[in-house]
Amino acid sequence: MVNPVKDYNLGDLPSVKDIDKLIHEPARLMIMSYLYVVESADFLFLMRQTGLTFGNLSSHMTKLEDAGYLSVEKVFVGKKPNTKLRLTSEGRTAFDIYRASMSQIFTPQMDSQKTPTRDGDGDDGYGFMSWFI
């Protein structure tokens, strides 16, 4: 049996150096993820969903806005200020690229000769548990 951990050519691995580090930071990744699935969200919603503090969310929001990934609209609802955030088309594209890059990194790039066999016990044939894949 071929052991891909041993026989895997490191040159075949996708490069992590090309990952968008602005998005990859955990707090900004949460912000981008939430905004990706909605048209827009207000600041307080994101603060509650992410668990970030006011200042922390504001700081990360500014970095995403400066990169052109996020648009911020400040309006008044009645007499209360309301901050709406949405991904720009550039932000959506950047997040699509980020997701594709991460998927490529975590998807085995093995050819058919190195395909693992699964025997139902959770072992993927390489000594890894299949629920990690």
Description:
By secondary structure, the chain is of the alpha+beta class. The chain has helices spanning 4-7, 21-24, 26-36, 43-50, 54-66, 89-106, and strands spanning 41-42, 70-77, 80-87. It has a single domain, classed as Winged helix-like DNA-binding domain superfamily/Winged helix DNA-binding domain (Arc Repressor Mutant, subunit A, Orthogonal Bundle), CATH 1.10.10. It contains six helices and three strands, in the order αααβααββα. It has a three-stranded antiparallel beta sheet.
Topology:
Layout: H1 4-7, H2 21-24, H3 26-36, E1 41-42, H4 43-50, H5 54-66, E2 70-77, E3 80-87, H6 89-106
Antiparallel strand pairs: 1-3, 2-3
Rounded to the nearest angstrom, the radius of gyration is 20 Å
The major sheet is characterized as: 3 strands, antiparallel
Name the CATH architecture: Orthogonal Bundle
The H-and-E topology, N to C, reads as HHHEHHEEH
Unreliable sequence segments: 1-6, 128-133
Structural class: alpha+beta
What's the CATH class label?
Mainly Alpha
